[in-house]
């Protein structure tokens, strides 16, 4: 095997009409031919019911529904945690937060990141001869050695954390609505709580900030351009590639785009969902035109919808958590209720993954790492335990089952962060402790509640088993009550 001549030149060079920093795709080993390419697209805060193929009330995802018809749709697929950073850390390490150390979201001021002794999926694939790119939201620490360029990605284009964690000139829709960044000639106003005004959201290309504040109205288009360029260059190089995309959609603020302006009278959420769908459609088109049949496209989400954002949040489909909601809590993001971590998931690989198939296998974002490593013919690092499994036989249509046991960690609703508070065992699900994330305001002036207003006092000890029957899940309480959600 030859040696990798992998380097990212961090100075932009004029290339393809734009400033596209040159990634050296050359590799003097022979990897042409058999190794598949991988495109992993992770939506943000997307509800299970936001995918039309899952939930007929949703009509805004024609491209994704098409992908479902041409590939495999997973209906019992789970995020590895119910918030951003832990879920992303698990995707890139194949390990739960208790093992990889990421149990909370990183803040704008965080100087750390995903622990440096963790090996990322991108590092494993780089070693196996892949060219690797990350486009979008990183949220695993970006200072110094925590930056994606030092975590296995030859190319990086995106924002370091969520796009509500910094001000922009194009704030979009949010609750509370945030103002544009303060201008030099104007002092910062007495601004709404929950709005960041002291940091303008940066857009990075590799180690350089290329736009600050980022223009949220054109971000999706930039992501589409960079992704198609990356796929183009990587395919032309003859080297296999990994592209990991962390979309801004469906996280708030929802952008005010041309698309939403065109569809006046439509809910901003629906417009934004169509924008995401179109972005995924553009990437799939590019794959179809350059590397079809040798590229595995995996679409999923990082956690359920952010219910506190009311009409700016997505749909949990049938997983309404009626028991939880009756206690005044949200059934979605941050919780281990179904709406919090059961996410849309699609696998598309014409000729390898059967078309128009629905899989009920219990799978997880944790499985992406071992599956991709196996399909790439690489090996897992030997010195650690992985929580995911190699799901390739499920993808090929040879096997119908996934995890027998799958743990869901706490992501802020109850107890210790990262603690394994909920378990799925086949058709059953048990809560050790069930908390709540409030989404009702106690203060009529402000809606919804900010995280610091959440009331941590209401923990319900619900120890019992759920029967999972036709996608309806229920719990049995210690007193024998039965609740379905
Ligand atoms: C990384 O270091 C931490 C702290 O020493 C340790 O707990 C963890 O097990 C290490 N992880 C690996 C993969 O070696
Ligand atoms: C942001 O991008 C949109 C769409 O490309 C453009 O119309 C608008 O002028 C830009 N806004 C700013 C503040 O640059
Ligand atoms: C997909 O499968 C469904 C039901 O099994 C069928 O009604 C539909 O026509 C199929 N679609 C395609 C594109 O094959």
UniProtKB/TrEMBL annotation:
SUPFAM superfamilies: Alkaline phosphatase-like. It comes from the Eukaryota. GO terms for molecular function: arylsulfatase activity; metal ion binding. Keywords: Calcium, Hydrolase, Metal-binding, Signal. This is Arylsulfatase G isoform X4. Belongs to the sulfatase family. Residues 36-378 form the Sulfatase N-terminal domain. The gene is ARSG. Its cofactor is Ca(2+).
